[in-house]
Amino acid sequence: MESFASFLFFLFACFVTWAVIIGLLVLHEYGHIYAMRRLGMRIDNVVLGMFKVGSLRWRGLTYEFGLAPVLAYCVSKDFEVSDTNRRAWVALAGPAATAATGLIFYTAWAFTDHWLMRACVQGSVILLLTNIIPLPPLDGWTVAEHFLAKRGVVLNAQERKRLLVIGAVTIIAIAVVI
């Protein structure tokens, strides 16, 4: 009986961890959504995690939820065809939302000392620091790409592909380590 209770506790812990990460990703992606709407860009849908397990339509947007919450992104054809300046502002809005909500969670944790607030603070810090890495497909890359383009540096398809592989490996390594 004790091992069954331990197993149930383990399942609960896994679910809470998944829910916290998905929640933090929603808040992060909302920063991008807010910026896109302010800049007049249409958002097609929002993907939260890999290996889709379900979706939800809310306020005119479809949110797809995945089993492995190691990545999230907004799908927008308008974003893809925008200039690098507008793309950089949208990219910065995600980490800005993460930093702002992280400060709110930190304040709540300071006053309540609740384990869930601490988990949200730690998750926010990890999400923020990971997303500002200047490698594709992370937000830091979109900002770096803007400044490279302003200086006349444009990468060819092969160079972009190499950086994308490095970025993907970096994301996986961070997910495994943490």
TrEMBL record:
GO biological process: one example: proteolysis
Peptidase M50 domain boundaries: 19-111
GO molecular function, one term: metallopeptidase activity
Localization: Membrane
Swiss-Prot/TrEMBL cofactor(s): Zn(2+)
Entry's transmembrane regions: 6-27, 88-109, 115-133
Keywords: Hydrolase, Membrane, Metal-binding, Metalloprotease, Plasmid, Protease, Transmembrane, Transmembrane helix, Zinc
Database matches in Pfam families: Peptidase_M50 (PF02163)
GO cellular component terms given for this protein: membrane
Bilayer topology term: Multi-pass membrane protein
Family: Belongs to the peptidase M50B family.
PANTHER family: MEMBRANE-ASSOCIATED ZINC METALLOPROTEASE M50B, STAGE IV SPORULATION PROTEIN FB
Protein name stated in the entry: Peptidase M50 domain-containing protein
Species, as recorded: Methylibium petroleiphilum (strain ATCC BAA-1232 / LMG 22953 / PM1)
